[in-house]
Write a structure and sequence with these properties.
Strand order of the largest sheet: 1-2-3-4
Distance between the termini: 62 Å
Number of strands: 13
CATH architecture of the largest domain: Sandwich
CATH topology of the largest domain: Immunoglobulin-like
Largest sheet: 4 strands, antiparallel
Helix content: 10-25%
Number of helices: 3
CATH class of the largest domain: Mainly Beta
CATH superfamily of the largest domain: Immunoglobulins
Order of helices and strands: EEEEHHHEEEEEEEEE
Radius of gyration: 25 Å
């Protein structure tokens, strides 16, 4: 609905019937309503929408972790926007219309420095994954920022069940290990994992690592 204040010479805005009223450069302007295009969307537009929907759904499920992993004091865009942009540009694979996520390229942090820890994950009977980690031999001056109290931020995803399992802040760097027991629904699923460390004050994020793909042993 449009409004005209102080008569036709007053401030105007909105729409009235088939026209749109607005103020442009201190002048009242009346324009025809834009017509919806009857031209079908190009395949490239359809593909982009499909990719965007897939990425945003995945990232939304990880919102709390993305808020931490993509935090930045120097970037004006939001953590979620940066995460969506990265995955659209780098982690979508497949040919139209069958797009999918390349989980090995999925990132939970925006940190670009080389990973400075080694991990090993072993599946054992009882639907359990045993994780161990240690500082990489390639670690450099970043070592000065490492603390045994850094939180381990761990995420698993069932490719078939489409469910994320969050294990954030349940272990610390100094422990060097963590054991995860999965719900029976994940048996037979393709389990993908990621991990990064976060300082105790939540301000320093270390680059994440893709842990690989695993099948649980019942």
């Amino acid at each position: 609905m449009g409004t005209v204040r102080n008569g036709i010479l007053g401030s105007v805005s909105g729409s009235v019937g088939p026209v749109v009223l607005c103020t442009f450069r201190d002048k009242e302007v009346v324009k025809s309503k834009p017509k919806k295009s009857s031209k079908p969307a190009a395949q490239s537009q359809i593909d982009q929408r499909s990719k965007f929907k897939m990425v945003t759904e995945l990232m939304s499920a990880l919102a709390a972790t993305i808020e931490v992993g993509y935090q930045s004091s120097s970037n004006a865009s939001s953590p979620m926007n940066r995460a969506v942009r990265y995955h659209l540009d780098n982690a979508v694979t497949g040919v139209s219309p069958n797009f999918s996520m390349d989980f090995a390229k999925m990132r939970l942090t925006s940190v670009n420095a080389a990973s400075i820890f080694d991990t090993e994950v072993v599946a054992v009977a009882g639907r359990i994954l045993k994780m161990t980690w240690g500082v990489s031999e390639e670690a450099d001056e970043t070592l000065r920022a490492l603390r045994d109290t850094d939180y381990a931020m761990i995420m698993f995803y069932g490719e078939n069940t489409k469910i994320f399992m969050n294990r954030n802040r349940l272990a610390v760097r100094g422990a060097g290990e963590h054991t995860v027991k999965f719900h029976p629904m994940f048996v037979g699923d393709k389990i993908h994992g990621w991990m990064f460390f976060l300082s105790k004050d939540g301000k320093t994020v270390f680059r994440d690592t893709y842990l690989g793909e695993y099948t649980l042993i019942a």
